[in-house]
Amino acid sequence: MASASVDQLFYAETTIALHEDEEDGTEIDVEEAFFEPTMLPAGLGGRAGRFYSGIGYLNPVHTHAWDFRDAPLAYRAFLGKQYRDDGVRLNWTAPTDLDLNIGAETLAGNEFPAGDSESVKGDVQTLFLDIGGDVGNSHAWQAGLSALTADVHDRRSGHGHGHGDDGGTSFSGDSDLYIADLVWKWAPAGNPRQRNFTFQTELFYREEDGPVEFSEDGNQARLDYDGKQMGLYVQGVYQFMPRWRIGARYDWLDADNDLRITDLGGFDDPDEVLEESGLDDDGHNPERYSLMLDWSPSEFSRLRAQYNRDESRPNDTDHQWTLQYIMSLGAHGAHEF
Amino acid sequence: MGRMSFRGDAMKRTGMLALSGTLLLALTTGAHAAIEVFTCEPEWAALVEELGGGHVNTRSATTAQQDVHHIQARPSLIAGLRRADLLVCTGAGLEEGWLPVLQRRANNPLVQVGALGYLEVAEYVPLLDRPTRLDRSEGDIHPGGNPHVQLDPRNIGHIAKVVTERLAVIDPAHGDDYRTRFADFSRRWDEAIAQWQERARPLRGVAVVVHHNAWVYLEHWLGLEVVGTLEPKPGIPPSSSDLSRLLSQLEQRPASMVIRSAYQPARASEWLSQRTGMPAVLLPSTVGGTEAAQDLFGLFDDIIGRLLEAST
To answer: How far apart are the first and last CA of chain A?
Structure first.
């Protein structure tokens, strides 16, 4: 990652990441590349390029600064883990005692939830608002509301994910996502060096409707899909002594999807189509419980152990243990609240 | 009827104009009544108050109980910087972990780097401790030199002149007031420095151990001699083996006291104090660090008082 003021008028940031891909080997990925004008008047700010959308609390936070090794289930379900795209942003900071920031983005829709990078592009609009302040010297808080509306064209999922037409679903239509977030931080006398605690929660609600095409073995069925889904995570992270932190997180998802077959298209069994489409809510609420402990030799590296009790799939509890090492080299930008 | 409503409209419009006129007046007088000064550290807020008097509203982003190297970019700080006309910080890399985020998030062009409303005071005094080796394995070091310049009162005297000139540029209507206040402050400050130096004469050559390497300017000014540091490297908390090593080092070269500031945990220096019998001293590193350090004069009065008390 590189970030710098270009001159007195612009700030720019690029993050280049290396990813291991099973099919393509090591890939170089331009994670973010954007610039911001720094001299706009009256509290206005802007951004253009490729960046993580400002919606939600965790979405704009780089993964190395996350408190758990994986994204909350709701981020996985509603934002494809973390939503970034190409586009522009305009935001405004109000001249008020409480911090009030309002932003709007127009994005290309290259990524989930509008589509995926290999299919036809949709387009995405976002709107978000954050307020925040202090309570005494030891407490600080921030609350936000966000909305994302996507015009979805041919969003594919299922067996043949983006690679040919060997099966899966394709959804086109409207997808509207709403997020409410709250973060509360405590540090004695505002000095987080020895001990501090962060409470963080986000609530998601999504509505989608439009036609879905389901294909398998050369057959192609059409369905009408009208889905309402909710998601939630709540987490707390406590630094009980310098360098050491412990955290717990709870995830929950819920779906109420209405599916109607409009054309069976060669399939024999409507129930099989419903089930295989992967869009049928089977009355199961995915849940996950996570615990983590991490140790930071310095502010540039961190060693983390995490346990997940994952009840995402019905009748199947998955126990996951992971060990993670995070490091950052070179000049490093400062972190936001 | 037609005439009446026309008259009514006209009256309403005059009313609106008068109202917006009052609002405009309120806004402009509001802007002229006091300039908003946001400082990174309490010592610069205290200095701006000395020099600006009633023409300025000051607010410090941090308190003496906080470690200014590690501040969270809280929403309240963004809101404070959004409305600032002038930002006064130490600079020299001290605030690099959080100030750039505040500047970007505040969307206030008046206080961006390079603008008139942005002042880094460490640029105007000679910095001590310029590192010869820059590597992260050396801990939290500042490439430009040690940034804790406020602990030599002579630096504050130089910086007061710079701050005065900047206030006069930003608020030219009160330029003469700022210069008059500066002349008065400067006279009182120079007298105080002379008195402090007189009082602190017995401290010359006194050996001390410090928690963090934050006192070089004070040591340089008073002629204290640092014989050990609790942190093995700047910003790295001492482990028990670091402390044992320091303890055996102190057997060769004993010290008179161990010094820490208000935001540092007492445990390490108290452990060392118990083992060696030398006193552990909390010194205010900025205004608000102790009860007595309520302004810049009180800050150095208290520092010298506490050092003298511990050394006898």
So the answer is: 19
In a mutational test of the B interface, the residue from A135, A193, A327 whose CB has the highest number of chain B CBs within 10 Å is A193
The DSSP code for B138 is G
Residue A237 token pair: 């992270």
Structure tokens at B252: 């060769």
A-chain residues near B74 (CB < 8 A):
132, 134, 140, 185, 337
HSE of A232 in the Cβ direction (CA atoms, 13 Å)? 8
Instruction: Tell me whether 0.90 is exceeded by the ipTM.
Output: no
- Hey, what are B12's tokens? 């309403």
pLDDT tens column, B293-304: 999 999 999 999
CA–CA gap between residue A186 and residue B98 (Å, rounded): 17
Tokens of A172: 């086109």
* Helix runs in B59-98, H state only: 75-82
| CA of A236 vs chain B CAs: smallest distance (Å) | 17
Q: Kindly tell me the burial class for residue B134, based on how many C-beta atoms sit within 10 Å of its own C-beta (0-12, 13-18, 19 or more).
A: exposed
The structure tokens listed for B67 are 């470690």
Q: Tell me, rounded to whole angstroms, the distance of Cα A285 from its chain centroid.
A: 19
For chain B, list the domains and their CATH numbers.
2-195 (3.40.50.1980), 200-311 (3.40.50.1980)
Three-state DSSP string of A60-117: CCCHHHCCCCCCCHHHHHHHCCCCEEEEEEEEEECCCCCEEEEEEEEECCCCCCCCCC
Residue A335 to residue B73, Cβ atoms within 8 A: yes
Find the angle CA(A236)-CA(A242)-CA(A237) to the nearest 5 degrees. 5
**Are the beta carbons of B66 and A190 separated by less than 8 Å?**
yes
Closest chain A residue to B67, measured at CA: A191
Length of chain B, in residues: 312
Q: Is the Cβ pair A40, B107 closer than 8 Å? A: yes
B223 near B246, Cβ under 8 Å? no
pLDDT values of chain B reduced to their tens digit, one per residue, 312 residues: 334 344 444 444 444 444 444 444 444 444 457 999 999 999 999 999 999 999 999 999 999 999 998 899 999 999 999 999 999 999 999 999 899 999 999 999 999 998 999 999 999 999 998 776 656 566 666 777 899 999 999 999 999 999 999 999 999 999 999 999 999 999 999 999 999 999 999 999 999 999 988 899 999 999 999 998 998 888 788 888 888 888 888 888 889 999 999 988 898 899 999 988 999 999 999 999 999 999 999 999 999 999 999 987
Instruction: Give the distance from residue A301's alpha carbon to the nearest chain B alpha carbon, in angstroms.
Output: 11
Tell me which residue has tokens 């086109």: A172
pTM of the model: 0.85
Task: Yes or no: say if B94 and B123 are a contact pair by the CB < 8 Å rule.
Answer: no
CB contacts of B142 in chain A (<8 Å) are none
Note whether B65 contacts A243, CB cutoff 8 Å: no
CB contact under 8 A, B76 and A134: yes
A45 touches chain B (CB under 8 A): yes
Rama region for B85: left / alpha / beta (φ>0; ψ in -120 to 50; rest): alpha
- The residues, any chain, with a CB within 8 Å of residue B295's CB and separated by 6 or more, are B46, B50, B287
Q: pLDDT digit string (tens) for B171-195?
A: 999 999 999 999 999 999 999 999 9
Identify all chain B residues contacting A185, using CB atoms and an 8 Å cutoff.
72, 74
